[in-house]
Amino acid sequence: MRFIDEYRDAKLAQHYARRIAQTVTRPWTIMEICGGQTHAIIKFGIDELLPKEITLVHGPGCPVCVTPVELIDKAIEIASRPEVIFCSFGDMLRVPGSKTDLLSVKAQGGDVRIVYSPLDALKIAKENPNREVVFFAVGFETTAPANAMAVYQAYHQKIKNFSLLVSHVLVPPAIEAILSSPKNRVQGFLAAGHVCTVMGYTEYEPIAQKYRVPIVVTGFEPLDILQGVYMCVKQLEEGRYEVENQYTRSVRREGNTKAQELIREVFCVVPRKWRGIGEIPRSGLGLTEKYREFDAELKFGLTDRSVEESSECMAGLVLQGVKKPHECPAFGTRCTPEHPLGAPMVSSEGACAAYYRYRREHG
Amino acid sequence: MAEEFTLSCPIPISQYPQILLAHGGGGKLMHQLIEKIFGAAFANEYLDERHDGAILDLNLSPVPSPKGGGEPPLSAPGRGWERGLPEGVGVRSQGGVRVAFTTDSYVVRPLFFPGGDIGKLAVYGTVNDLAMCGARPLFLSAGFILEEGLSMETLWKIVQSMREAAHKAHVQIVTGDTKVVDKGKGDGVFINTTGIGIIEHNLAVSPKSVRPGDLILLNGDVGRHGIAIMAVREGLSFESAIESDCAPLAEVVLKLIEAGIEIHCLRDLTRGGLASALNEIAQTAHVHITIDESAVPVREDVQGACEILGLDPLYVANEGRFIVFVAPNDAERALEILRAVAPEATLIGRVLAEPRGLVTLTSRIGAHRILDMLSGEQLPRIC
Question: What is the CA radius of gyration of chain A?
Answer without folding.
Answer: 20
